[in-house]
Design brief:
It contains seven helices and eight strands, in the order E-H-E-H-H-E-E-E-H-H-E-H-H-E-E. By secondary structure, it is of the alpha/beta class. Strand 3 and strand 4 form a beta hairpin. It is globular and about 55 Å long. GO terms for molecular function: digalactosyldiacylglycerol synthase activity. It comes from Salix koriyanagi.
């Protein structure tokens, strides 16, 4: 690659101080992927308005700016690893959907990474990140797109009113968006929705 470092951009659906799997695991993934300095790693996380931060973040923790939240995130991971993490952090605009108990991206979040830096994208919860994606296809922009499936959203939806019918529709949409946007799909466990051409592998930490 012309001596250019591989650039891995990790996009995820949540951030500290919300202690959810999609906030914590991608953060450690970024730290350990960047550890040996052989590749450039960027963690891309949601930025919420103050009003939405109050709905999501515990213990009345809020941030006046993305740089303030970045300091918090870095300090948290630094206290838990034995090295100085060398990855960068960027933010995409997002909102909290109370009915879904989820953070949703606003606009085309792939634009956070400039085209000249676009190489490998890791989409943590690709079905969630791409439900409302309106922009350049991820596979067009990035040389390789890896989706990591964390959550079985179908189980949550089945608990709603008319849940079984809704779940069938969401299963179809999930399969469609993941196939469109990802070259490879990794499911963290067999309990998640099955996807074509997917493998099951717990890649927390950094497995090969």
């Amino acid at each position: 690659m012309d001596n250019k470092k591989q650039h891995i951009a990790i996009f995820t659906t949540a951030s500290l101080p919300w202690m959810t799997g999609t906030a914590v695991n991608p953060l450690f993934r970024a730290a350990f992927l960047a550890k040996d300095g052989s590749r450039k790693v960027t963690l891309v996380i949601p930025w919420l308005s103050l009003q939405h931060q109050k709905l999501v973040y515990p213990n009345n923790i809020t941030f006046a700016s993305p740089s303030e939240q970045q300091v918090y995130v870095r300090q948290w991971v630094q206290e838990r690893v034995s090295f100085s993490p060398g990855f960068s952090i960027r933010f995409y605009p997002a909102k909290f959907a109370v009915d879904k108990r989820s953070i949703l991206a606003v606009g085309d979040i792939s634009e956070v990474i400039p085209d000249e830096e676009a190489d490998v994208a890791v989409l943590e919860e690709p079905e969630h990140l791409t439900w409302f994606h309106h922009g350049k296809r991820w596979k067009t922009k990035f040389r390789l797109v890896i989706g990591i499936i964390h959550t079985n959203y179908l189980e949550y939806i089945k608990r709603e009113k008319n849940g079984r019918i809704k779940a069938m529709g969401v299963k179809f949409i999930n399969s469609w968006v993941v196939e469109i946007y990802c070259h490879k799909v990794i499911r963290l466990s067999a309990a998640t929705q099955d996807y074509p051409n997917s493998i099951i592998c717990n890649v927390h930490g950094v497995n090969p």
